[in-house]
């Protein structure tokens, strides 16, 4: 069987982060590699054998560079595991047996290497000796890497993109996404994932086009394939034709021209045509997002996801380290407001951190892998169980509040006791800081996120213990509709346009306003221009959105009349089905866009 010619393949997935991009692929290998079997003519056997030598050399170089990185980041002890990997590569028995197999069977070297290495691994696995068992893990790791090189996945040097490439993976965890070299990350295409998985939210905030839920794209893509990502329509084209490259080039050109118009006016306020100011803040992950936020014209930060501070460290950060991270953001954005959300570990943000590698980063015996982490010990629940960790963060946030305008908010509040307990710990922290002579804003305002239906129905009760609300629609939708937000096979059931979701948002806003408290929306729904219009009509006081979309949303608001959006929302609230709601919103948005484009053509 000859190897495939490069043909164009189009795969449809979920549009996760807008934009069109194309470039060579970078395969982030995570699952079993598919190994082809084909015959080698007698005259080509020695060339086939030399492919093994070539792959061994390549693998040796990769292991060496990983060793250098690990030694630098984690020290010699951790790096020495890669010496054992080099020894596996030097193992003459394994490599000689592979060469023999090629010569005897006349089959390709990948097939023969798989056969031989599997026998090797089986034999070692059956020896009842702990040391040998540990070596089996090394053999697996090295043989996988070597196989990757034989198959042409030569990019496999963990998280190290050395050129501009499109990353293809079965799935990406937030920490894997964070570890990819930003300057070289052109786009993302994954088998799994959804619009609200945290790696996708990160891609969107970086302005990197992404398509997820592609089911088996990682099976189709080879290392030298060119990939075109259409993040608007959720399409990936493997080895696109000249015609498609031209067509998509046009789309991107037009899109960028409109973006320029949005950006030129990004510092004008988001004031509706009938005179209402809508506050547009940004969702950020750390100091690296602040310059862009300023350029984009955001009114500060409506959601500072602090998990990044934890995910980028090798152990739980100290109070001092956290204080530094928060202080930098607050000072850099002063006098803009920064709303810092306390730790929301759990869900898709827990696996990589605790159970990610051969050694979990935090070997806390109280932390167990859960079968249903989104419903488990997540966010405020985790913090109230681990008050030592929580109080370190609260003190760090309080200390940062001495450097600018800061509010804090708690994620995943499900009832009154959690809000009260969190506030009690906050008061304890204030007391401790006073004793130790630290400066902080003693009147710091506290918000409760509304992400769980139970919290949505007791806004009147919660309002006695907080100063504002922030609706996290990503989770609210997941918990209201019982649809796992990162499960691509049920992504079609994850509907922001469900009447129950729209009514609940309206009720939260009304109940909060009755008590005189403002409501912000910080879930991804606010970053979608179609839904942003609805949220304004429902009475949201603020939207906190992906930084890359701030100029567009502000521009759109300047073209709207608030009175019209209220009428639109009233109509939507009477509707019975999701399609009708979506079509009405999309038509409204489309009409507005047509008017905008007419004025510019
Ligand atoms: C949300 O749930 O809408 C939210 C903003 O929080 P996260 O996406 O970090 O869970
Ligand atoms: Mg949430």
Give a nutshell description of this structure.
The protein has 601 residues and is of the alpha/beta class.
Explained architecture:
This protein is 50% helix and 13% strand. The chain contains 25 helices and 16 strands. Strands 1-8-7-3-4-5-6-2 form an 8-stranded mixed β-sheet. The chain has an 8-stranded parallel β-barrel with strand order 9-10-11-12-13-14-15-16, surrounded by 7 helices. α8 links the parallel β5 and β6. About 2% of the residues have low confidence. Phosphoenolpyruvate (PEP) binds next to β10 and α20. Magnesium ion binds next to α20.
CATH superfamily of the largest domain: Phosphoenolpyruvate-binding domains
Helix content: 40-55%
Kindly report the spatial arrangement of strands forming the biggest sheet: 1-8-7-3-4-5-6-2
The averaged pLDDT comes out at 87
Instruction: Kindly name the structural category.
Output: alpha/beta
Q: Tally the structural domains.
A: 3
Bound molecules: phosphoenolpyruvate, magnesium ion
- Looking at how many chains there are and whether they match, the oligomeric state comes to single chain
Low-confidence stretches: 355-366
Strand content: 5-15%
CATH top level of the largest domain is Alpha Beta
Number of separate strands = 16
Distance between the termini: 55 Å
CATH architecture of the largest domain: Alpha-Beta Barrel
Q: What gyration radius follows from the Cα positions, in whole Å?
A: 27 Å
Q: What's the tally of helices? A: 25
Q: How does the overall form come out from the CA principal axes?
A: globular
Largest β sheet strand count, sense and barrel closure: 8 strands, mixed
In CATH terms, what is the fold-level topology of the largest domain?
Answer: TIM Barrel
């Amino acid at each position: 069987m000859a190897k495939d010619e490069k043909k164009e393949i189009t795969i449809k997935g979920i549009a996760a982060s807008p934009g069109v991009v194309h470039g060579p692929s970078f395969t982030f290998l995570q699952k079993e590699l598919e190994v082809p079997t084909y015959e080698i003519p007698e005259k080509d056997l020695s060339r086939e054998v030399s492919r093994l030598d070539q792959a061994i050399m390549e693998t040796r170089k990769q292991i060496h560079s990983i060793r250098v990185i690990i030694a630098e980041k984690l020290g010699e002890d951790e790096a020495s595991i890669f010496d054992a990997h080099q020894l596996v590569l030097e193992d003459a028995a394994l490599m000689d047996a592979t060469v023999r197999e090629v010569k005897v069977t006349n089959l390709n070297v990948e097939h023969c290497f798989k056969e031989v290495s599997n026998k090797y691994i089986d034999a070692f696995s059956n020896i009842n000796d702990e040391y040998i068992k540990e070596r089996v893990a090394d053999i697996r790791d090295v043989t996988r890497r070597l196989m990757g090189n034989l198959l042409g996945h030569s990019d496999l040097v963990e998280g190290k993109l050395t050129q501009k490439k499109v990353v293809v993976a079965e799935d990406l965890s937030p920490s894997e996404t964070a570890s990819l070299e930003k300057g070289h990350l052109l786009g993302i295409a994954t088998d799994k994932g959804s619009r609200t998985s945290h790696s996708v939210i990160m891609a969107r905030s970086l302005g990197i086009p992404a398509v997820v839920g592609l089911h088996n794209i990682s099976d189709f893509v080879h290392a030298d394939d060119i990939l075109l990502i259409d993040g608007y329509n959720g399409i990936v084209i493997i080895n696109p034709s000249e015609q498609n490259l031209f067509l998509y080039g046009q789309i991107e050109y037009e899109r960028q021209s409109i973006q320029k118009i949005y950006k030129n006016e990004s510092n004008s306020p988001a004031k509706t045509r009938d005179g209402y100011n809508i506050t547009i803040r940004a969702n950020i992950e750390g100091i690296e997002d602040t310059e862009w936020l300023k350029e984009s014209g955001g009114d500060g930060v409506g959601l500072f996801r602090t998990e990044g501070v934890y995910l980028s460290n090798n152990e739980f950060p100290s109070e001092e380290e956290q204080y530094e991270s928060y202080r930098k953001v607050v000072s850099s954005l002063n006098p803009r407001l920064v709303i810092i959300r306390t730790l929301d570990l759990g869900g898709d943000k827990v696996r990589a951190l605790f159970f990610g590698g051969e050694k979990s980063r935090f070997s806390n015996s109280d932390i167990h892998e859960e079968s249903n982490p989104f419903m488990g010990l997540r966010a405020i629940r985790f913090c109230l169980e681990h008050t030592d960790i929580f109080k370190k963060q609260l003190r760090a946030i309080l200390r940062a509040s001495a450097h600018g305008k800061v509010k804090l908010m708690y994620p995943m509040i499900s009832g009154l006791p959690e809000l009260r307990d969190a506030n009690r710990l906050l008061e304890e922290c204030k007391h401790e800081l006073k004793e130790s002579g630290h400066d902080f804003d003693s009147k710091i305002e506290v918000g409760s996120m509304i992400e769980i239906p139970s919290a949505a129905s007791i806004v009147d009760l919660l309002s006695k213990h907080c100063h504002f609300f922030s609706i996290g629609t990503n989770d609210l939708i997941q918990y209201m509709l019982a649809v796992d937000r990162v499960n691509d096979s049920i992504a079609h059931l994850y509907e922001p346009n469900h009447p129950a979701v729209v009514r609940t948002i309206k009720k939260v806003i009304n109940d909060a306003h009755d008590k005189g408290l403002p409501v912000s929306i910080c879930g991804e729904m606010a970053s979608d221009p179609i839904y942003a219009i609805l949220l304004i009509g429902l009475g949201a006081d603020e939207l906190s959105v992906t930084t890359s979309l701030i100029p567009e949303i502000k521009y759109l608001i300047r073209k709207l009349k608030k009175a019209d959006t209220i009428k639109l929302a009233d109509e939507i609230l009477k509707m019975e089905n999701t399609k009708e709601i979506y079509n009405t919103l999309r038509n409204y948005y489309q009409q507005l866009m047509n008017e905008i484009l007419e004025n510019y053509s």
